[in-house]
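2024-03-11 09:14:02 DEBUG pipeline.ingest accepted 1 chain
2024-03-11 09:14:02 DEBUG pipeline.ingest length=210
2024-03-11 09:14:03 DEBUG pipeline.predict start
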Amino acid sequence: MLVPAALLVICCAAKAQTPVAPPASSAKPATELWTYSLVVDAYFVPNDVDYGDPVFTANHKRLHLEARYNYESLHTGSVWAGYNFSWGKKLTLDVTPMLGAVFGRTNGIAPGCEASLSYKKFSASISNEFVVTPGDTSNGFYYSWPEVTYSPLSWLTVGGVAQRTKAYHTSLDVQRGFLVGVNHKKWEFTSYIFNPDMTPTVVLEVGVKF
């Protein structure tokens, strides 16, 4: 009887002396509070110059930062700062008002806004801005890119798109067309066809989030 009792005492003592690991912290490291994305559009414009249009974004909580090139006009860059708002769960509305500085071939300031409304597999979004050129108001212009999309599969998106831009010119003030996109993990690939009933403009887009 003494031996089992002694073993029991030793085991209990050893268990009592085993350090208890502290609970894992649920707080994320500061670096994880930032999210980034890079989207590059390749424009193939009939009877005009083909060009690339990269857009880089960074988000930290509600802060939104963005940098673009060839977006407002060719050989023109812009930097943006804005604030992210979001409402709803099933029906979700996201709105980001922004203010940008435009420089290069076109110089000015630009108030803008990005907004999206999503419900299940449907989504409607718009990115728009008005470029103001101090000292020469005749060069000011309004830019917009609205989309309406449907995702029949988790990796597939189809929809309609329009664009009003100064980067290239056609006989139409507003370009309109359709899109087909696929995604895999952090990557997205989308093809846009503008003015399919005329001489079409093709835009191939690749995006990544990290």
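2024-03-11 09:14:41 DEBUG pipeline.report Residues 2-17 form the longest helix (16 residues).
2024-03-11 09:14:41 DEBUG pipeline.predict end
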